[in-house]
């Protein structure tokens, strides 16, 4: 597209754009009682890594709430409001015991569900033991992450177990990444495949490899639980179809990173990360996730096992670089944080390449308003037997027909997407085998061979 040259008196518009615009608070605010906060509380979220929980309580902040996470000496995890129900001393100074957590101030002991087990300075028959409860939330532990549900107990969904939780021959490495900005500007990046072409390749050189710099053909699909999209491009004699999957509100999965150049056949590769973008509060976010290393993602190399290695895979460039390096080769972290603590949507100018971002925002807003009106968000874990199917990963088909026509690439992408969704009724290895078998059949048909 050629660059438009405005009339001379309209070329410099800085002064007219100095007024601050209001936040899109309905989407971005997460504290208790806000529309977005009440919506987010209807889902399970990871709140910490198991490795962060020691023999003393851990102070965590999630959705604007200050909480204390602990593991008692019996191996049970509990998540309590920070301040003791007695006199409000912080339970971060509590003592983990065989059953429950004891407050340091007056010795009140609480079970993982908030039950008051002991008030040692009170009579044995004190009504406090049945009347007082410490506010608590239910927790689940999976693959080194501690998850919690912070919403109304009567609306608690079944804990969602996805098919990527237990991939065979996979080494899972839990990790976290902190961002001083609103959760939405991180999550919606997963619906923006175009940024990889420029941020990770063309502008300052490749973060991964040159193939990422080819403009792709994009097709978006909406599902009851969120979105997935295909991101297709030709690489020599191959068509590389990369599939991203976003499960509302904040689970994102994409394909391999370091091993993908699109020039080697792969059939239903799987995501290298399974991550949740968890709001700490309105202006801070913590990604809590695990990286998946194995033959269907990126192979486990020792250099990727370090915190810096994970940062490179997760965001293109390390977050912990000196500022002088980041200014010359920014990555996802710099893009997210440079938008401000909460980006003002009213000052944006969305384009056709932002289709995925616009779709995500519209759906998120509709679901937030549905909950605010007394409705319920779709919960796949209450509707579909576990494990829940996911779509993220890489498929590379060797298709020798020398066509990089967009319609041709889009047609291949649609066949891949249809193959993935058609296998949803199957579970585990049966689903994988069905998808891989059909992808190979597509490859043969595209090369003129009979099935």
Structural notes for this entry:
- It contains 12 helices and 19 strands.
- The protein is an alpha+beta fold.
- The protein has 2 domains: 44-155, Rieske [2Fe-2S] iron-sulphur domain (Rieske Iron-sulfur Protein), CATH 2.102.10; 163-377 and 388-446, Naphthalene 1,2-dioxygenase Alpha Subunit, Chain A, domain 1 (Alpha-Beta Complex), CATH 3.90.380.
- Strands 12, 13, 14, 15, 16, 17, 18 and 19 form an 8-stranded antiparallel beta sheet that branches. Strands 2-3-4-9 form a 4-stranded antiparallel beta sheet, with no helix packed on it. It has a 4-stranded antiparallel beta sheet with strand order 5-6-7-8.
Characterize this entry briefly.
The chain is of the alpha+beta class and about 450 residues long.
What structural keywords apply?
Naphthalene 1,2-dioxygenase Alpha Subunit, Chain A, domain 1; single chain; 451 residues; Rieske Iron-sulfur Protein; 19 strands
Write the layout of secondary structure elements.
Layout: H1 25-28, H2 35-40, E1 44-49, E2 58-62, E3 65-71, E4 77-81, E5 95-96, E6 101-102, E7 109-110, E8 116-118, H3 128-131, E9 136-137, E10 139-142, E11 145-149, E12 171-179, H4 184-187, H5 194-202, E13 217-223, E14 226-235, E15 238-247, E16 251-254, E17 273-281, E18 284-293, H6 307-315, H7 323-328, H8 332-338, H9 355-372, H10 380-383, E19 393-398, H11 406-422, H12 428-446
Antiparallel strand pairs: 1-11, 2-3, 3-4, 4-9, 5-6, 6-7, 7-8, 10-11, 12-18, 13-14, 14-15, 15-16, 15-19, 16-17, 17-18
User: How much β-strand is present in the residues?
Assistant: 15-25%
Uncertain runs: none
Distance between the termini: 43 Å
Structural class by SSE content: alpha+beta
What assembly state would you assign to the polypeptide chains in this entry? single chain
Second CATH tier, the architecture of the largest domain: Alpha-Beta Complex
CATH class of the largest domain: Alpha Beta
**Domains counted in the coordinates: how many?**
2
Q: In total, how many beta strands?
A: 19
- At the fourth level of CATH, the homologous superfamily of the largest domain is Naphthalene 1,2-dioxygenase Alpha Subunit, Chain A, domain 1
The number of distinct helices, counting runs of at least 4 residues, comes to 12
Helical percent range? 10-25%
C-alpha-based Rg, rounded: 24 Å
